[in-house]
Write a structure and sequence with these properties.
CATH architecture of the largest domain: 3-Layer(aba) Sandwich
Oligomer: single chain
Number of domains: 2
Number of helices: 10
Number of strands: 12
Strand content: 15-25%
Amino acid sequence: MPISTAYVPTDRPERYIKQLVSHLGRKATTTLSTDGRATIALSHGECVLAPAGGALEMIATAADAEALAGVQDVVTRHLLRFATQEELRTEWTEPVAGDELEILSPVAGDYLLTHCTQPDELLRELVARTREATGGAAGMQISHDEGAFLSLLVRMTGARRAIEVGVFTGYSSLCVARALPEDGHLLACDVSEEWTSIAREYWERAGVADRVELRIGPALDTLRALPAEPVYDFAFIDADKPSYPAYYEEIVSRLRPGGLIVLDNVFQGGRVFDPAFQEASQVAIRQVNELIARDERVESVMLPVRDGVTLARRR
């Protein structure tokens, strides 16, 4: 599904948004939130409008390029009709699909990597070992800035009991286990004996193997077999995407008040933004994103960290 954006300089973005919602509401489904953000859902696509400092931001989406052009035309014509006191410049970007969006530019990504706590020799060696042992699958390993982020979160929450769903070769679990106190415990769930054998080696070398309990098998079975009491302080989910909603439900009920769940890859490379992508992974991630945003059991925030990270704190 094509996506296009427009940035329209104006001192009256809120006024134009209200006028568009009021007028187009006769032939479309419209919503207007208290922060001024509005959605106009037409029969052939959708446009989101938001006030920015000195500008109106617009995001148009549709099933194909022809329908997108129709959405752009409807919104632009009505916007210019309302602009009786100024001359607006409305220029839409070239249409792109969700997986073509640049979530994080290489320049920003490199800057982030060089301006966080740097990995020690053991972590750097694990990265190299993972590339050598797993080849193209090495992209499943989190980046070292995200690893530093996990360690910081564990320490900030004072976590003692943690869960990880999706171990791979152990980079993230090593970051979590090192941040736990000496008597801390990490339940690590995975299905691969081969890849977690590398993780075991590095847990041993880091001196945290006694803090990590690895369970091989379907993670849902492992989670459902746990006592129902809310005793966990921290959880990191980075495994098969279709199971994210189920993983979340099993873990959130076992979190103590103040406990934190971190979910990785909630952008799916930009595919979650584009309804044209309807594979099981994208459908499930959209589902869990919506679930968390409306879940009164938690307070949450979604961050543009790498491929998107959601933090959900149990109330």
